[in-house]
Amino acid sequence: MLTKLLVGHFRCFERFEADFQPGCNVLVGANGLGKTSMLEAACLLLRLQSPRTTRLAEVVRHEQRGLLVDGFFNGAHLQFYYSTERKKLALDSVEQRTATEYLRCGRVMWFSNADVDIVREGGEVRRRFMDFVASQMEPTYRKALRDYDRALRSRNLLLKAPIPAWKQIHAFDEPLLSAGQILMQTRQELVTALRPLAQLSHNNISGARERLDFTYQPNATAAFPAALHAAQAEDARLRQTTVGPHRDELSLTLATRPATLGSEGQQRTLVLALRLAAANLLEAHFGAPPLLLLDDIFGELDLARRTALLEQLPKNSQQLIATTQREWLPPALNANVLELQRAD
Ligand SMILES: Nc1ncnc2c1ncn2[C@@H]1O[C@H](COP(=O)(O)OP(=O)(O)O)[C@@H](O)[C@H]1O
Ligand SMILES: [Mg+2]
Predict the structure, then answer these.
(1) How far apart are CA 294 and CA 79, in angstroms?
(2) What is the pLDDT of residues 207-237, one digit of tens each?
(3) Whole-model pTM above 0.85?
(4) Is the minimum distance from the CB of 35 to ligand 1 under 6 angstroms?
(5) Which of 37, 64, 68 to mutate to test the pocket of ligand 1 (most atoms within 8 A of CB)?
(6) What angle, rounded to 10 degrees, do the helices at 173-206 and 264-286 form?
(7) Angle 261-265-267 (CA atoms, 0-180°, nearest 5)?
(8) How many CA atoms lie within 13 A of 147 on its CB side?
(9) Could you give the C-alpha distances from 70 to 4, 8, 62, 103, in angstroms and in order?
(10) CB of 66 closer than 6 A to ligand 1?
(11) 61 in ligand 1 pocket by Cβ < 6 Å?
């Protein structure tokens, strides 16, 4: 569990420190006081990535050079400094050259009122969901994702040239393919493992008759090397790499109809089920539940669903819950409450 979290030059915070307890911790405060930022900091501390953005530069407090997150998780002292010029990691005060050991310390699952975008927005949001879980399940995934992005960006840049230099372009095929295969295989395994868990969670929260289902739809349907090869003319025409896992989809259905056709309430229940399934999967895989970060998700749920959701959370998990209204929490909840105050 996370016992202490300190942030410096992090979003709206110059410096902020909080202590947490096992079980339920609630951050209460008006809009704009930094509740989401605190949860984001906990995620960054454990996973070195923000659940909100892929660009850490925007997390650094305006007019500052770099941010610091520092905390204790299961007794391990984690420290991460980030600026655009350099990153620094330390585990128990020992500087780390790679993130491997550091990332073994803990896992998180993030629930947010913006999660409904997983149903409503483009494929990128669904890929980010798969990536967020897969990077925690499978240590090689994180590196594969980075390698893939790098090869893709280089390849696309070369494809933009007035006369594409194919020899140079093909030099990036091999790294693209080998990283891409890891992404595709892990995503397939992840979705297969998530599916029954999500269907169970979905029944439990909603008691819904309509069945939740989803499938992984790799963009490269044939073998990726053959698909990449076959797409050469199309790549040249569109001046970008047109096949590969950067265009993968997770197709979501409710009662066999596209989830986008569901009501607002149905869509929110669906994404809750996905997040819960991911938390349960991480718990099953690592033998310990992830740290749960619940950002402002109670406002749009009725009391029955709020209570059902809290009951579905992995037992013995630690939760950080951000809310503007304390009344939205079930009255019986035994929680450590932290009130955020306006700084002035
Ligand atoms: N990089 C940044 N530097 C300074 N302030 C920021 C930065 N990013 C966001 N903010 C501000 O931080 C404040 C807190 O945001 P947030 O954590 O979303 O609050 P809450 O969740 O409590 O509503 C917002 O007013 C936002 O404008
Ligand atoms: Mg917020």
Answers:
(1) 23
(2) 767 899 999 999 998 899 999 999 999 999 9
(3) yes
(4) yes
(5) 37
(6) 110
(7) 50
(8) 17
(9) 8, 9, 19, 14
(10) no
(11) yes
| Ligand 1 within 6 A of CB of 334 | no
Q: What is the mean pLDDT of residues 250-264?
A: 94
What spacing in Å lies between the alpha carbon of 33 and ligand 2's midpoint?
8
Q: What is the mean pLDDT of the chain?
A: 94
Q: Which two tokens stand for residue 198?
A: 């999500």
**CA distances, 5 to each of 52, 115, 319 (Å):** 19, 25, 14
Alpha carbons 29 and 300: distance in angstroms, whole number: 17
The backbone torsions φ and ψ at residue 157, rounded to the nearest 5 degrees and listed phi first, read -60, -45
Strands annotated E in the chain: 2-10, 13-19, 24-28, 66-73, 76-83, 87-91, 94-95, 108-112, 212-217, 249-254, 257-258, 291-295, 319-323, 335-339
Beta bridge partners of 292: 109, 319
How many beta carbons lie within 10 A of that of residue 323, not counting itself? 20
Beta carbon of 341 within 6 Å of any ligand 1 atom: no
Distance 59 CA to ligand 2 centre (A): 14
**Could you give the domains of the chain?**
1-106+290-344 (3.40.50.300)
Q: What is the pLDDT of residue 343?
A: 67
